[in-house]
């Protein structure tokens, strides 16, 4: 990839002065022209095809070529010109190495860790829901969004945190913007995390409800993880790969076993209602947060990480083999009219809110600050880890979008519309989607659920079941064998596994945040090893997301339909905070002329989130505005009427309460972000007047390490590493 | 044929290296190497892994959405 650049290899190793773009080889020019041409053809096909069969591979190629060009040119520009990474400067991992959190890590290994930390259910679920608008809006935003916003945010936050010894987003906002912004950011991060945990858990509940196969195999992941924990602690300490191998085999057996259990007498006992599943998840989250990590959290994390990477690789390969054809329209009527049943609202702003994680995810800023920057070996490597990691995440989102767009679209809408709309039976659901012009019949819907051996697929909202149907279809087309039911439950297990990992890890992080914050006032509570503190903080965090979850699953209007916008907007608002911080820092560092790099995505993100928040709060269309919805149901209730889908007075009350609560939360998040932005404007004005301001950046210390800057070492870098080894003796400095 | 075999062996080694680094198993090799270099007595594997997992107890692992 970097054949075009010759690097100065005197002194500190690869690329320390940035790229010296003097010589471009003919071969490299040809390669990049070819990549650009393939990408352009793919985009043209996607944009112009109407009515004919379009292969899903065009989406894949359009995305991959765009990523390659963005990584090669734009990411390089940001890394070397805007941020000016300097490989002569020691990173915090090198200076503060302690083998625990500060630890020089091979760039390829850290890329894997970072990717595993940022990738979760978000990029899988958001694009599935956004497929309601057709494949084109989703594809464009996932690719354009990641190139100009999401990957830029991850990279820039990582850089600024790395220059500040790995400080967290909240700390940086407090120190670089101000105490008001800092407190608002802290509250926003905590509150947004609660919403995210609740919505993730909601997706699992919707995927497992009334599915004995799913419940059986997911439930078995807990004893499997416990077994691995004990194995690694006492039987064979440290043999992670061995334990994970055993774990994966047991997982596969659990999925196969689920098929038998479904047909056995146990099926009834394992057919759980949503309310029972909520209780089970809440208990699980609490226990996982209180137990020692080695027993449950760490082994689960191994399992879900390896499964995650394995399934994503398998999906990419099987897409190439199966070459499915897109069933969705490029742009549906719902995109124009905003009346879609999956989520309400028109293309702008709601497609951007719904896709969230695959294009721009504020939550990544929490991992790009803090955890990952403490392990980077060389400054320039953040291009690979931060920008490249996010491109991978975007690729996952593209795969999910494809999976949702290759299934029968009547089935798609029957699955993703709330039960209040579909009526819950195959006949009523078929009638409902026929109303949209799909000719899917009740027999088709029944056949689809029989193929994956689920009691029903009608109104299995949340995105996970749809994705699982898409994945099972692609896998069984690619590998044959009539194993669709196995692949469906395999996909459900894989999603549930890492959603649960996100839920238990998130509960723990929430617990740490709470203990840390309360610890400022009540010292004892901040002591992480104080048992009662752990228990109380865990209980509070679990109770918070558990109650939002409960509200979601019992919502007569459909929890996903109601809560997913809140989740999406919250995530994008967090991104606004992160991009605000980056823009402020660029200006404080006197790089006003490059402030557009984060400034433009920030403005876009603020426009999107504020428009969406405004509509969710002030819109007088009840399907969109939370308060309008509350008012409509309140008026009807007071007049003694019932409004569908509510079936009794209690449900009317519930809608009024939930909609009001959602509206209040929505306003609250938006106000917090505006507080941060206002505080930032003050700092920016001061910085502009002074032509820059001092920041908390650590002073430069010379680096003793020699490491390649990019994924593949250049010839010059290899020479530099060899020379350095010869001088310093093997084992020092460079790890391999 | 030997060139192909060498390439396969090299790739397999690379994968093994990556998995060991990624899963943290390689930390133990490092500990042994460092102890040998400085002439320290290495910990037992059990003790070493116990300390590593106890350190994890205090550092939150974030998993994103």
Describe the structure.
The complex is a heterodimer of chains A (736) and B (65). Helix content of chain A is 69%, strand content 0%. In chain A, α23 packs across α24 (531-554). With 736 residues, chain A is mainly alpha-helical. Chain A has one domain (26-211, 271-690): Amino acid/polyamine transporter I (Up-down Bundle), CATH 1.20.1740. By secondary structure, chain B is mostly helical. Chain B has a domain at 24-54. Chain B is built from 3 helices and no strands. Chain B has helices at 2-23, 26-38, 45-58. Chain B is flat, with a radius of gyration of 17 Å. The model of chain B has no long low-confidence stretch (mean pLDDT 90). The interface between A and B is large, with 51 and 32 residues.
Strand-helix topology:
The complex is a heterodimer of chains A (736) and B (65).
Chain A: H1 26-48, H2 57-82, H3 92-95, H4 107-118, H5 122-130, H6 135-162, H7 169-176, H8 179-208, H9 212-235, H10 240-262, H11 267-270, H12 274-290, H13 297-322, H14 333-337, H15 347-355, H16 364-371, H17 382-405, H18 409-416, H19 419-422, H20 426-434, H21 442-451, H22 464-479, H23 484-519, H24 531-554, H25 559-588, H26 596-618, H27 626-638, H28 649-690, H29 715-728
Helix pairs in contact in A: 1-2, 2-6, 2-17, 4-17, 5-17, 6-15, 6-16, 6-17, 6-25, 6-26, 7-8, 7-25, 8-12, 8-23, 8-24, 8-25, 8-28, 9-10, 9-13, 9-23, 10-13, 10-23, 12-23, 12-24, 13-22, 13-23, 15-25, 15-26, 17-22, 18-20, 20-21, 22-23, 23-24, 24-25, 25-26, 25-28, 26-28, 27-28
Chain B: H1 2-23, H2 26-38, H3 45-58
- Report the oligomer: heterodimer
- Main pleated sheet of chain B: none
State the end-to-end distance of chain A: 21 Å
H/E topology pattern of chain B: HHH
Indicate the percent of residues in helices of chain B: over 70%
The level-1 CATH class of chain A: Mainly Alpha
């Amino acid at each position: 990839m970097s054949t075009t650049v010759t690097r100065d290899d005197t002194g500190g190793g690869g690329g320390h002065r940035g790229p010296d773009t003097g010589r471009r080889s003919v071969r490299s020019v040809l390669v990049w022209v070819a990549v650009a041409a393939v990408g352009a053809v793919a985009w043209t096909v996607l944009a112009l095809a109407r009515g004919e069969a379009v292969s899903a591979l065009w989406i894949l190629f359009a995305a991959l070529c765009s990523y390659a060009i963005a990584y090669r040119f734009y990411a390089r520009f940001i890394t070397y010109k805007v941020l000016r990474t300097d490989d002569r400067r020691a990173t915090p991992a090198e200076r503060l190495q302690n083998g625990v959190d500060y630890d020089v890590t091979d760039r390829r290994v850290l890329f894997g860790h970072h990717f595993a930390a940022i990738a979760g259910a978000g990029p899988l679920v958001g694009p599935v829901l956004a497929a309601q608008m057709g494949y084109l809006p989703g594809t464009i935003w996932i690719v354009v969004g990641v190139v100009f916003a999401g990957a830029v945010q991850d990279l820039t936050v990582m850089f600024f945190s790395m220059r500040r010894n790995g400080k967290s987003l909240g700390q940086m906002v407090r120190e670089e913007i101000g105490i008001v912004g800092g407190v608002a950011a802290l509250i926003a991060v905590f509150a947004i995390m609660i919403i995210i945990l609740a919505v993730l858990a909601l997706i699992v509940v919707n995927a497992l409800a009334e599915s004995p196969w799913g419940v059986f195999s997911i439930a078995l992941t807990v004893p499997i993880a416990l077994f691995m924990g004990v194995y690694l602690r006492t039987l064979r300490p440290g043999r992670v790969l061995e334990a994970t191998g055993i774990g994966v085999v047991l997982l596969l057996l659990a999925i196969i076993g689920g098929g038998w259990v479904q047909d056995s007498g146990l099926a009834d006992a394992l057919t759980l209602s949503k309310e029972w599943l909520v209780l089970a998840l809440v208990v699980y989250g609490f226990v996982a947060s209180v137990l020692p990590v080695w027993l449950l959290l760490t082994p689960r994390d191994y399992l879900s990480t390896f499964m995650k990477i394995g399934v994503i690789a398998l999906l990419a390969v099987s897409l190439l083999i199966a070459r499915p054809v897109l069933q969705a329209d490029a742009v549906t009527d719902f995109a124009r009219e905003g009346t879609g049943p999956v989520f309400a609202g028109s293309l702008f702003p709601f497609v951007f809110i719904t896709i969230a994680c695959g294009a721009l995810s504020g939550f990544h800023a929490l991992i790009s600050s803090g955890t990952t920057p403490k392990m980077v070996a060389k400054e320039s490597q953040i291009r690979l880890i931060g920008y490249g990691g996010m491109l991978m995440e975007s690729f996952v989102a593209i795969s999910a979008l494809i999976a949702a767009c290759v299934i029968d679209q009547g089935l798609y809408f029957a699955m993703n519309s709330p039960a209040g709309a579909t009526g819950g039976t195959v006949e009523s659901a078929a009638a409902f989607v026929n109303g949209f012009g799909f000719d899917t019949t009740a027999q088709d819907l029944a056949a689809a659920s029989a193929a994956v051996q689920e009691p029903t697929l009608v109104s299995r909202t949340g995105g996970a079941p749809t994705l699982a149907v898409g994945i099972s279809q692609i896998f069984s087309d690619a590998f044959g064998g009539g194993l669709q039911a196995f692949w469906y439950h395999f996909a459900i297990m894989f999603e549930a596994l890492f959603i649960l990992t996100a839920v238990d890890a998130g509960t723990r992080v929430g617990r740490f945040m709470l203990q840390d914050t309360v610890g400022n006032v009540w010292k004892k509570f901040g002591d992480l090893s104080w048992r009662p503190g752990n228990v109380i903080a865990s209980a509070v965090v679990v109770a918070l997301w558990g109650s939002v979850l409960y509200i979601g699953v019992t919502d007569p209007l459909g929890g996903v339909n109601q809560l997913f916008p809140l989740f999406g907007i919250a995530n994008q608002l967090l991104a606004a905070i992160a991009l605000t911080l980056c823009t402020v820092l660029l200006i404080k560092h006197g790089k006003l002329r490059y402030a557009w790099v984060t400034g433009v995505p920030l403005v876009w993100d603020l426009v999107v989130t504020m428009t969406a928040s405004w509509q969710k709060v002030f819109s007088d269309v009840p399907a969109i505005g939370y308060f309008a919805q509350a008012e409509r149901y309140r008026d009807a209730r007071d007049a003694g009427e019932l409004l569908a889908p509510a079936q009794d007075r209690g449900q009317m009350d519930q809608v009024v309460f939930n909609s009001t609560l959602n509206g209040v939360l929505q306003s609250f998040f938006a106000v917090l972000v505006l507080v941060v932005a206002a505080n930032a404007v003050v700092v920016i004005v001061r910085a502009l007047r002074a032509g820059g301001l001092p920041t908390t950046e650590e002073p430069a210390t010379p680096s003793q390490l020699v490491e390649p800057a990019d994924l593949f070492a250049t010839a010059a870098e290899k020479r530099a590493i060899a020379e350095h080894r010869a001088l310093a003796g093997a084992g020092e400095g460079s790890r391999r | 044929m030997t060139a192909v075999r060498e390439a396969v062996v090299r790739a397999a080694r690379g994968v093994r290296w990556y998995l060991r680094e990624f899963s943290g198993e390689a930390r133990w090799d490092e500990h042994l190497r460092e102890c040998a270099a400085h002439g320290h007595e290495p910990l037992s594997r059990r003790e070493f892994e116990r300390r590593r997992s106890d350190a994890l107890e205090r550092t939150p692992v974030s998993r994103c959405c």
